[in-house]
Amino acid sequence: MTQIATAPTAPGAAGSWPSASQSAAQRRALARRHYFTGTPGRMRIAAAVASALCLTFALAGFLGLRGIDESVDRAAANTEQVVRVRAIYADLLAADAAVTNGFLNGGQESAENRTTYDDAMARVATSIAAAAAAQQADGKALAALNAEVQSYVSNVDRARTYNREIKPVGAQYLRIAGTDLRAKALPIAAAIAEANEQRADQELSVGALGGLVIGIGALTLGALIAIATWLARRTHRYVNVPLTAAIVLVGAALALAVSHIVTVGTTMSKVDSGDYAAAVSLARARAAAYDAKANESLTLIARGSGAAYEAAYEGSAQAATDRLADMVRADSTQTRLPSLLTAYTATHAAIRDADNGGDWNAAVELATSTTDGSANATFSAFDTAAKDVLNTQVTNIVRAFDQIGGRYLPWASGLAAALAALLAGRAMSQRIEEYR
């Protein structure tokens, strides 16, 4: 048989033997491919996925629960600011009602009216300072409000000076003070209150943030259980201690997070629709009632030309009645206040009957009297009861936020999930060794 000679192939050409360096590179590439193939490779992938999910849950749980706690703090601060600014609004009108009623006595303003005015304006000054310290975002608006309040006080002081001298110009300064108060100061106070109401409404809901934490936690727990089930079927060993411990830690962290989120959500929803809604409605009702009381006196001061003030009284009295109805819907235990306001409006009707009948002096007597059953007495009964109810509602709001707790839960949840990540990463090492 004839043998055919073949020429040697060039080194590195197709079909040639690999060089030593090429053989090492190929071995490394093959090792990398095999690292993630087969059962050991799938175990490594499962361990990496489990660790990544646990770390994601640790981060989401920590930041999410911290965010919820911060939201609770902001909600508490904003609701307190709303009530505080609504109180400023009401106190300004309380002061105006007192000083206006005092003018009906000519130059002899009663000590009671003077005290009511001074106390209300002192509360306004204190509350403006407290509101500025509590919410920096309201600083400029509160400064503008304070300037308008000082202007109002100056006009009232002028009005009182002329009124003591029995000069008609005193009534003109009083009308200027009241008009500017309603046109300039009160709109600023209302705008501040509404801005804080919007902030409070935003903070009183934790649905999105809570849902994100629960969703990531549930996904992580589900993935760990699925990996544990796959591993048990593959190895016929039903308990992997590190992986089981990771599942327990994630489950505990998720249970704590769910419990806290539900507690926070329930509490904030209850506050929002209960004491907070009732307090805001009552604060508005008090302000409207004070406005009505001031217009009652202005109608008489105008002596026959007070139709506009009486119309303003009717509007404010109706607004107070409507806001009290809103308050009762939010807090059904407070049914006494509407009847107290009704008792006052009945005395106002008697004042109007006397004035419309041509007996202005009798109308003034009814408007300035402090005897039982008088307009001032019935209004004072309403005002005292309203203050007590409002203080109770504010106390309930503060207590509800304080009782939420869970300040250390973000750390506990985050650390538990982070430890679970370490355990999940080591869960496959023993099983992988069995394949070597």
Count of helical regions: 14
Mean pLDDT: 85
Fraction of residues in H or I helices: over 70%
| Gap from first CA to last CA | 50 Å
Structural class: mainly alpha
Instruction: Give helix and strand order, one letter per element, not per position.
Output: HHHHHHHHHHHHHH
Q: How many individual β-strands?
A: 0
Low-confidence stretches: 1-20
Quick one: biggest sheet? Answer: none
**Rg, Å, rounded:** 37 Å
What would a concise description of this structure say?
The chain has 436 residues and is mainly alpha-helical.
Question: Which helices and strands occur, and which strands form pairs?
Answer:
Elements: H1 20-35, H2 38-102, H3 111-134, H4 139-164, H5 169-203, H6 207-235, H7 241-273, H8 275-301, H9 307-330, H10 336-356, H11 360-368, H12 375-402, H13 409-426, H14 429-433
Give a description of the structure.
With 436 residues, the protein is an all-alpha fold. It is built from 14 helices and no strands. Helix 2 runs antiparallel to helix 6 and helix 6 packs antiparallel against helix 7. The longest helix has 65 residues. The protein starts with 19 loop residues before the first helix and ends with a helix. The N terminus is likely disordered.
What features would you highlight for this structure?
single chain; 436 residues; mainly alpha; 14 helices; 83% helix; elongated; disordered N terminus
